[in-house]
Structures are given as structure tokens and as C-alpha cells.
Design a protein that fits this description.
Layout: E1 4-8, H1 13-24, E2 30-33, E3 36-37, E4 42-43, H2 47-56, E5 65-68, E6 71-74, H3 76-85, H4 87-91
Parallel strand pairs: 1-2
Antiparallel strand pairs: 1-5, 3-4, 5-6
């Protein structure tokens, strides 16, 4: 079974859209919350943040970060065209 994971922040509207999309497709996924520290302009140190950086293979400064199996989709700007073209449907577990 292909695993779907998403790193998101509760204050991120595009994360909400990504989560709603996955739910609308009845995709089983694991969601990991990371929180943004606006004063320091970085994610708050946490195990989820550290795992996100490791999965992304670098320090990132935006969410959502979505993983479908080995495929990394960095952000809504990459996800949205995949939804519109139907490409995402070839990646999601059925």
C-alpha cells in the first residue's frame, strides 16, 4: 500500500485545501503538524519539523509538504496543477 503523508500548519490556508482534497478522495493519510514562528521567520523546533526537513532533504520554509510513496510534492503550487491535470490520480492509492 502506498503511504500518503502531509506536513502542515494549522495557520496555513493552502494546507487546509490540501487536506480537504485528500479527504474528498477518501485517501488514508498521516498528517504531521508543524508550527510557524512568525517572529523568528522559521518553523518551531519539533520532532515533526526535523522529520519534515529530513524527508525534504533540506530546510524548507513553507507547507504543505506532501509525500505519496516516494514522490515529494512541495507545496500547493505544485499540487494544484497535478490536481487540474489529473496527474495526482495516477499517484494516489485507490
Amino acid at each position: 500500500m502506498i503511504e500518503v503523508e502531509i506536513y502542515y500548519s494549522s495557520v496555513c490556508g493552502l494546507c487546509t485545501k490540501a487536506l480537504e482534497f485528500l479527504r474528498s478522495r477518501n485517501v488514508t493519510f498521516t498528517a504531521f503538524a508543524v508550527e510557524w514562528d512568525g517572529a523568528n521567520d522559521e518553523f518551531v523546533a519539533s520532532e515533526n519539523r526535523d522529520n519534515m526537513y529530513k524527508r525534504c532533504e533540506k530546510k524548507v520554509d513553507f507547507v504543505p509538504q506532501i509525500f505519496i510513496g516516494d514522490k515529494h510534492i512541495p507545496g500547493w503550487k505544485k499540487l494544484e496543477p497535478m490536481i487540474e491535470s489529473g496527474e495526482i490520480d495516477t499517484l494516489l492509492p485507490s
